[in-house]
Amino acid sequence: MKIAIVGTGYVGLVSGTCFAEMGTDVFCVDVNEEKIANLNKGILPIYEPGLEEMVLRNKEAGRLHFVTDLSSCLNEVEVVFSAVGTPPDEDGSADLRYVLEVARTVGRYMEKHLLIVTKSTVPVGTARKVRQVIQEELDKRHSSLTFDVASNPEFLKEGAAIKDFMSPDRIVVGVESDRARELMTRLYRPFLLNNFRVIFMDVPSAEMTKYAANAMLATRISFMNDIANLCEIVGADVNMVRKGIGSDIRIGHRFLYPGCGYGGSCFPKDVKALIKTASKHGYPMRILQAVEEVNESQKSILFRKLQQHIGDLQGKRIAIWGLAFKPETDDMREAPSLVVIRKLLEAGCQVVAFDPEAMDEARRRLGNEIDYAKDMYDAVVDAEALLLLTEWKVFRLPSWAAIHKLMARPLVIDGRNIYDMVEMQEYGFEYYCIGR
Description:
By secondary structure, the protein is α/β, with parallel strands linked by helices. The protein is built from 17 helices and 14 strands. The relative contact order is 0.09.
């Protein structure tokens, strides 16, 4: 089976590579010539554990191809996945220009029946627009060719994307015809031989499912951050509260960890887009509006704690551990670190940072506004405070005795609650976290 995936960003590259791993012949298409040239050399645009080895293996096997022109492979494939970006417009709605451009190209150059599948996160009604654009292009050619449109939203977690794709807990597919359903079944059956967990539904429901899933997870995070902030005020321990409510099988333990806010390419964008979609239909998403407000405030909580315990920050050297929005990725989109760093710089601080994977991305975004440490210990030299923003494994069990000697003031503010409060105090640190 041959397929094309348009867009070699996070979703497109991971999806294409995993399909190739299962024996599918995959054309990954991107208009960015430099990116495609690099991929053909084995240079990846993103960091994801295990992805580089899988790309190289499948490229060597001849199952994974990287091209810049969709029309060059369009009529070799049965399915075209659209995995291009849907960045937020200024008003928060999803920008569909790239999705519709893919549809336009398909309509211009297709010469046989195709299934066009939207894998990008798109608002409800996008498949209808895709169908309309393709049909308009066919009509211009006076072509009677037929096609199907489907929705197959992704549910990949950065840092665990390959496992999520290769062993999914479910696959959501919105279809309009038996032919499309049969094609998608054939494509995904190798991943689910023992337990076929594809949930077929209508296309609008599939489009909504992606937004609803991310909005629910974002809601749990903001809810726990709100609870954590109240715990601090009333003298409760949010870790105990989390364990207590998480043991309720109706609630569960996942996404109940308080911290310094969520970021990344999905939650912030998708919450905004869902709020905007509802607004266009005259319905206010009051809970999600609060979720977004809590999250934006939470991104500044470490800065507020630092001000509370140091006071005037002018000229203070502040160390930061963790720049990526989460571990096992170099993605800094909407990362809390960017908010904290901006506030520290505005307060006159000297900022020195370290992240195991996101240093190049930080340099691209921040230039020489901050200092970049060679490792986690170099970051804390002469620092008057250490702020932990990303819970990388390498940060979990450092030599606190060495760090105590290196810092100008042994003050640690833990934005992910990964350290033991009593132990930190025994090491001689002023230690503060979230919700305790």
